[in-house]
Design goal:
Elements: H1 2-23, E1 26-32, H2 41-56, E2 60-66, H3 72-82, E3 88-92, H4 96-102, H5 108-111, H6 127-131, E4 134-135, E5 138-139, E6 142-147, E7 149-154, H7 155-161, H8 171-181, E8 183-185, E9 188-195, H9 207-212, E10 220-221, E11 224-225, H10 230-244, H11 258-266, E12 270-276, H12 280-286, E13 294-297, E14 310-311, E15 313-319, H13 326-336, H14 339-347, H15 356-359, H16 370-381, E16 383-384, H17 395-409, H18 413-426
Parallel strand pairs: 1-2, 1-3, 9-12, 14-16
Antiparallel strand pairs: 3-15, 4-5, 6-15, 7-12, 7-13, 8-9, 10-11
C-alpha cells in the first residue's frame, strides 16, 4: 500500500511540475502582414522559423497576429498611447520616422547589438537600411528584409514583340514599348502596356517619384518637401500622360493600389507593371503566363544614360518598449534577423539577404537567384531612401493625388505639386 501511495504521489508531483513548466512558458506576440498558416514563400519561411525557434527555446512560444500592412504601423503607434500593443511589430520604411517620433520602440542597440562580437554589425551590407532606424545612439528597429518598388515585365510578350528589355533605358522608350505590347481585341484592351499603382493608399513608387529624384535631385529640405521644380513637373506630366496621351495605362489605375496591380499582372492583364520585389516569388508561382516569363528591369531615366535610382524600402522589426517580455522578444528578433533566419528568408521566402554572410552562400550564384544579384547590383549603383527622420507615410499618396489632378482636372503641374507640398507638410 505504501509503495502504491509513493507511486501515486510521484505521478501527482510529475503532473504538477509539468503544469508549472507549461505555465512558465512565455508567449511573445508579433504583428506582421504575413500569416504562417498560409502558403506564400515568405509565410512558409516564417512558419519554419517559428518551429525552429520554439524547438530551440521550449519556454518561448511565438504567437503571430496578422494585420493589414497599411494599417499595422499607425495602429501600433495608437496602441502605444492606449497601452495595448504586441511585443514585436513589423515597420515599413515610410513609417520608420513615425516609429521614432511615437516613442514606442525599445532600443535594440542596447537590447541586442551591444552584445554582439566585433564586426557582426558590418554583416548588414545595406548601410542606408541599417541607419534608417537610428535615432542618435539608439536603434529603433532592425532590417528584416530589404525591398523596393521595381518594374516587372512579361518575357513572353517581349520576345513576341522583339523588344530587348535592356534597351528601355529611357522613360520614352518604355512608353513606346508599352504601346507595342498592348493587346486589343474587338475594341477591348485585353493586355494593357503599363500598370502603375496610382491609388492614394497602399501604393508603391511611380514614375512621378523616380523621375523627380533622377540625377540626385533633392526633393526635401529637412522634412519640408520641394516637389514643385521643373524635374517634378516633367515627372508628374509623364505619369499623367501614360493615361491621357500614350493610353498605355488605364484610367482605372487611379483607383488601383499595389495589390490590384500585382493581381492584374499575375492574371496577364499588364505587360509591364510596378510592384514590390518582395513579391517576386509569389508572383512567379501564381503567374498565369508561367513563372519563367516573369522578369525585372532597372528603372528608366529621362536622360536614358544610366538607370533611375533604385529605392530602398522593405520591412524592419521593432520591439515595444513597454513589453513585459522584452528579453524573450529580443531573442526572437535576433533570430529572425540573424544568419539562420536570414537564410530562410532568402532561400525559402525568396527575399534578398540583408546579411553579407548569407549572400556569400554558393546557392545565390545559381540561376534561380538572378533577382538577388539584380537587386544588389541596382542598390550598389544608385539607391535612394526616404528621409526616415520625417513622416513620409503620405509621400506617394500626395504625389498620386497630384497625378489625379492632372488627369481628371487638367491641372497645371506646378500648382498640383505645390498642393502636394502643402499636404505633405500637414502630415509632419
Amino acid at each position: 500500500m505504501a509503495k502504491l501511495m509513493r507511486t501515486a504521489l510521484a505521478a501527482a508531483a510529475s503532473l504538477y511540475l509539468g503544469v508549472v513548466a507549461a505555465n512558465a512558458q512565455t508567449t511573445v506576440t508579433m504583428w506582421t502582414f504575413l500569416d504562417p498558416q498560409r502558403t506564400s514563400p515568405r509565410e512558409v519561411a516564417l512558419k519554419q522559423m517559428i518551429e525552429n525557434f520554439e524547438r530551440a527555446n521550449p519556454n518561448i512560444k511565438i504567437r503571430v497576429e496578422p494585420q493589414d500592412f497599411a494599417q499595422m504601423p499607425p495602429r501600433f503607434f495608437l496602441g502605444h498611447r492606449t497601452g495595448q500593443n504586441p511585443d514585436v511589430v513589423w515597420i515599413d520604411a515610410k513609417n520608420l520616422g513615425g516609429l521614432i517620433q511615437s516613442g514606442a520602440a525599445a532600443d535594440l542597440q542596447q537590447a541586442i547589438v551591444s552584445k554582439w562580437p566585433a564586426g557582426q554589425r558590418e554583416d548588414f551590407f545595406v548601410g542606408a537600411g541599417w541607419n534608417a532606424a537610428r535615432n542618435g545612439n539608439q536603434l529603433a528597429a532592425m532590417p528584416l528584409m530589404h525591398g523596393a518598388s521595381v518594374v516587372y515585365y512579361r518575357k513572353d510578350l517581349f520576345r513576341e514583340a522583339g523588344i530587348d528589355p535592356a534597351s528601355l533605358r529611357s522613360w520614352d522608350a518604355l512608353a513606346a514599348a508599352a504601346k507595342r505590347l498592348q493587346r486589343t481585341r474587338d475594341g477591348r484592351t485585353e493586355v494593357w502596356g503599363f500598370g502603375v499603382p496610382l491609388a492614394p493608399t497602399r501604393t508603391e513608387s511611380t514614375p512621378a517619384l523616380i523621375g523627380m529624384i533622377e540625377g540626385g535631385a533633392q526633393i526635401f529640405d529637412g522634412c519640408r518637401a520641394r516637389f514643385a521644380t521643373e524635374a517634378g513637373a516633367r515627372a508628374l506630366r509623364f505619369t499623367a500622360n501614360l493615361i491621357t496621351q500614350e493610353r498605355v495605362t488605364p484610367q482605372e489605375a487611379l483607383a488601383q493600389h499595389v495589390d490590384d496591380i500585382t493581381e492584374q499582372f499575375i492574371a496577364g492583364r499588364y505587360a509591364i507593371a510596378i510592384t514590390s520585389n518582395l513579391r517576386f516569388s509569389a508572383i512567379a508561382r501564381a503567374a498565369t503566363f508561367g513563372g519563367d516569363n516573369v522578369g525585372v528591369m532597372p528603372w528608366p531615366s529621362f536622360a536614358g544614360q544610366s538607370p533611375g535610382p533604385m529605392p530602398v524600402s522593405g520591412w524592419w522589426v521593432a520591439m515595444w518598449n513597454r513589453s513585459p517580455r522584452q528579453a524573450e522578444a529580443a531573442r526572437w528578433i535576433e533570430y529572425i534577423t540573424g544568419p539562420e533566419g536570414g537564410k530562410l528568408w532568402a532561400t525559402v521566402g525568396g527575399q534578398v539577404p540583408t546579411r553579407r554572410s548569407v549572400l556569400a552562400d554558393p546557392v545565390f550564384a545559381q540561376p534561380q537567384n538572378d533577382l538577388v544579384r539584380f537587386m544588389v547590383t541596382q542598390w550598389s549603383e544608385r539607391s535612394w531612401i526616404e528621409p526616415t527622420e520625417c513622416n513620409t507615410r503620405t509621400l506617394q499618396t500626395v504625389l498620386n493625388e497630384a497625378v489625379h489632378r492632372l488627369v481628371l482636372q487638367n491641372a497645371n503641374p506646378m500648382d498640383a505639386l505645390r498642393e502636394a507640398e502643402r499636404k505633405f507638410a500637414e502630415a509632419q
